[in-house]
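Input (structure):
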């Protein structure tokens, strides 16, 4: 199996729902008409939804006015009002899903990164998830991965990975998988005890076999540096994978979960197990 390459975004382009927005007060006589929060929210949701279409999305992201979304994000990041910020993050996520030099949101990815890093500490988990989704798109770029490492974002992601919140864990793992595509990311993660964290979370992942598969892809990337397979925290991984790959692991699961185990987890878990065993055999001394 090939290494899990950087390039898996947090969630891709996603639909934006029609949340409950307050009806703006009508301006008084003689007052200038200003864009209301309600109107802005609707516009951002329209942009986000337009970007779901693979033909329209790149055109929206390349439009001259697309960069204004970054200006709105700067304002919303300062005000930190939940609903407006979520709408803006959703638009940024969907617009940044499409690669290309013409993408005006991606052109500001380093500025956006600086805005979003503090938001990973927000108490609202929906905001944390949306930020991680954006980083899932941005972290396909090696230069952004380096910027995230400089800001020690991998430490925040490891903390998020251990939370009891499914979407937070999923999106954090997606960004980590991209970060460890390069040697500096693997070294940084290992230095913070990240190998042990990944193994521990993998042990708790079932019956979420999609998450278990992504964790295995992340560990595969980590193991691209053979030295990390000798990390003491990696020692339980071989036995854990053997247990999870045994047919008895899915004996009592419903058909859908059993299919996910076979088609998503086994196709990455088994090559990872074989890789670990091959490495161990290479290290065993020859008998005299």
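Output (sequence):
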């Amino acid at each position: 199996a090939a290494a899990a390459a950087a390039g898996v975004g947090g969630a891709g382009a996603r639909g934006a729902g029609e949340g409950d927005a307050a009806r703006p007060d009508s301006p008084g006589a003689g007052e200038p008409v200003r864009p209301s929060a309600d109107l802005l929210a609707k516009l951002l949701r329209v942009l986000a939804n337009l970007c779901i279409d693979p033909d329209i999305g790149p055109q929206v992201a390349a439009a001259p006015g697309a960069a204004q979304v970054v200006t709105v994000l700067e304002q919303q990041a300062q005000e930190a009002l939940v609903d407006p910020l979520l709408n803006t993050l959703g638009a940024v996520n969907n617009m940044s899903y499409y690669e290309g030099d013409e993408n005006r949101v991606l052109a500001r990815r380093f500025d956006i990164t600086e805005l979003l890093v503090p938001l990973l500490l927000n108490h609202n988990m929906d905001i944390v998830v949306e930020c991680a989704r954006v980083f899932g798109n941005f972290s396909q770029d090696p230069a952004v991965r380096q910027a995230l490492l400089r800001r020690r974002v991998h430490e925040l992601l490891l903390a998020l990975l251990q939370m009891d919140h499914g979407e937070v864990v999923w999106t954090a793992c997606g960004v980590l998988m991209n970060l460890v595509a390069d040697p500096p990311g693997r070294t940084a993660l290992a230095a913070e005890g990240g190998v042990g964290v990944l193994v521990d979370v993998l042990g708790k992942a079932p019956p979420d076999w999609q998450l278990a598969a992504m964790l295995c892809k992340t560990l595969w990337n980590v193991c691209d540096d053979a030295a990390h397979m000798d990390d003491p925290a990696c020692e339980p991984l071989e036995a854990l994978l053997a247990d999870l790959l045994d047919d008895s692991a899915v004996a009592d699961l419903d058909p859908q979960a059993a299919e996910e185990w076979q088609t998503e987890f086994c196709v990455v878990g088994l090559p990872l197990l074989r890789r670990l065993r091959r490495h161990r055999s290479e290290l065993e001394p020859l008998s005299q």
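Notes: The radius of gyration is 22 Å. The chain is about 60% helix and 0% strand.
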